[in-house]
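Tokens for chain A. Residues wanted.
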């Protein structure tokens, strides 16, 4: 029997589950193998046609590729003042809107800077408006 590399195994599973959907155990096993791959192998896998529509695996590969940058960005967002986060939240081109939204929601839920956050959410998307409206009765 020929030993398969982690990359070959993941490709094999991706081909197997491309049209039928992933088995949770196999997906978890493949995700656990990702840190063993080289950067070049991760990029090759990320660009593969076999995982083109596989959101979970692609997101995990992305996270492994950019773990240092993602961690720093999250730490910076958590450490930022609410006023700064609100300004960045309004800048839809910042690339950090989803992370900032989550942090602002957390702060709002904890009772921190509620008025400032509510104002920002009321000027944002309908989903953000609904989110803050559903919680404003609780404050």
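Reply:
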């Amino acid at each position: 029997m020929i030993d398969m590399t982690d990359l070959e195994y993941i490709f094999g599973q991706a081909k197997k589950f491309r049209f039928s959907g992933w088995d949770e155990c196999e997906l978890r096993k493949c995700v656990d193998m990702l840190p063993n791959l080289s950067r070049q192998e991760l990029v090759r896998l990320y660009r593969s046609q076999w995982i083109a529509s596989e959101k979970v695996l692609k997101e995990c590969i992305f996270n492994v590729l950019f773990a240092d940058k993602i961690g720093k960005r999250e730490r910076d967002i958590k450490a930022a003042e609410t006023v700064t986060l609100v300004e960045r939240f309004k800048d839809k081109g910042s690339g950090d809107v989803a992370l900032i939204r989550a942090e602002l929601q957390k702060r709002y839920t904890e009772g921190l800077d509620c008025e400032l956050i509510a104002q920002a959410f009321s000027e944002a998307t309908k989903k953000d408006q609904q989110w803050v409206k559903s919680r404003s009765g609780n404050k």
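The mean pLDDT is 88. The chain has two domains: 6-65, 68-136.
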